Amino acid sequence: MEYVVKFAEGFMNLFQTGAETFISWMTSIVPVVLILMVLMNTIIAFLGEERMTKIAKASSKNPLTRYLILPFLAAFMLGNPMSFTLGRFMPEFYKPSYYASLAQFCHTSNGIFPHINPGELFVWLGIAQGITTLGLNTTELAIRYLLVGLVMNALGGWVTDLTTAYVCKQQGIELSKSVELTEGKKAAA
User: Which residues form a coiled coil (predicted)?
Assistant: First the structure.
């Protein structure tokens, strides 16, 4: 009977710990993410989808703006997974590369901007605990991780462009490299 009681206590403790974590998020990270989402949707509504499409179109002309600046802004303003929604403004050809770059950035920015990917914060906290144990500064590590991530994510986006072009050629398909507005639709999906 003692084992059953200990198992039941441990089982309930798991849910109590989960509830405490949930409540801590509700008073810290969730409001920040919610307000950032409201801000970004307000900006999109204020500017209009046509202007956002024009910004994405301008961003898609240059790999640095396409895979460095736009993913950073999307991740910072919207967090993961909401940041992927800005991909809807990208031309079809660049959507896989934008996704690749942004997906990587949501991981590499977590140390300095934990609101971007709170679901993986435990990974960063584990690394940070080791760094703290060694007496080193975690902010320095977070900034290095962010900077290396920005460069590698942009490179990853560009490599995905090459891969997309190869697959398109192999499959005999052509994806649009421009955003085209059609009547009845404000932005090409």
Answer: none
